[in-house]
Design a protein that fits this description.
Length: 266
């Protein structure tokens, strides 16, 4: 068993002002994505300058934050937020949904594309390779918050999380997700998108890989207490939401290669 590193969730405390690591992880993820996107933006559109890219990053960031929070409220704990709506604004306590954030990003990207004369899926193909940076940073934030831990286990790297009332050695599922959704997904998409691809193919590959990675990790991750398992004694909300992602992603890849086999993607 490995000891859980006792990291104060509050990174900086200045009187009543507290800056949490969880929030900083979002800034790191957005900043890292912006930095790498700036290296490829001229391949996507040579006319774009830093201001145009910054506008895009702002819109995507708003989609992540607003969509992620509202998605968690709707998908995972609607009753609690109805009883106390102020909980919606307490983002430092965690409670973000990837699938809600994805919907938010899709909506904001669609609006941005229409305003700037771009095709939606071409813009999504440009964005997709940078998303895992934010996903990986977010999982580190979950680990520091000692939340979203896994099932009890006797693997050598199991940990006892301070937030676990049972104090059992558990899978550090946040780190599994960091490795898969953050590191592995970034490497796959970065390499794949470095060469010309059909429109929708990069976005489709993102959906397929994320859906598969998340589905797998859900087997060792404890589901949200207010939901539990939805069916069969193992099916979680995360898995339910990932199935359509994988199917839609596969459809996008097939459509792309059949209809635009030589068209380059950013």
């Amino acid at each position: 068993m490995l000891p859980y590193p006792q990291i104060d969730p509050v990174a900086v405390s200045l009187g009543p002002l507290q800056i949490h690591w969880y929030g900083l992880m979002y800034l790191i993820g957005i900043g890292g994505a912006w930095l790498l996107a700036s290296r490829r933006v001229h391949r996507f559109d040579p006319s774009w300058d830093k201001d145009k890219l910054s506008d895009l990053v702002f819109w995507v960031a708003m989609g992540v934050i607003v969509g992620g929070r509202l998605g968690y409220v709707l998908f995972y704990d609607l009753a609690a937020y109805i009883s106390d709506p102020t909980l919606i604004f307490q983002v430092w306590k965690g409670g973000m949904s990837f699938h809600g954030g994805l919907i938010g990003v899709l909506l904001c990207t669609w609006i941005f594309a229409r305003r700037n004369g771009k095709k939606f899926f071409e813009l999504m193909d440009f964005i997709a390779p940078f998303v895992p940076i934010g996903l990986g940073a977010g999982r580190i934030g979950n680990f520091i918050n000692a939340e979203l831990w896994g099932k009890a286990s006797d693997v050598p790297w199991a940990m006892v999380f301070p937030t676990d009332p049972q104090q059992l050695a558990r899978h550090p599922s946040q780190l599994y997700q960091f490795a898969l959704e953050g590191v592995a997904l970034f490497v796959i998409l970065w390499i794949y998108s470095s060469k010309p691809r059909p429109t929708m193919a990069v976005s489709g590959l993102f959906a397929v890989c994320y859906g598969i990675f998340r589905f797998i990790v859900e087997f060792v991750r404890v589901p949200d207490a207010q939901l539990g398992y939805l069916a069969f004694g193992w099916l979680t909300m995360g898995q339910v939401l990932c199935v359509p992602m994988v199917l839609i992603g596969l459809g996008m890849i097939v459509w792309g290669y059949r209809h635009e086999p030589v068209k380059a993607s950013a």
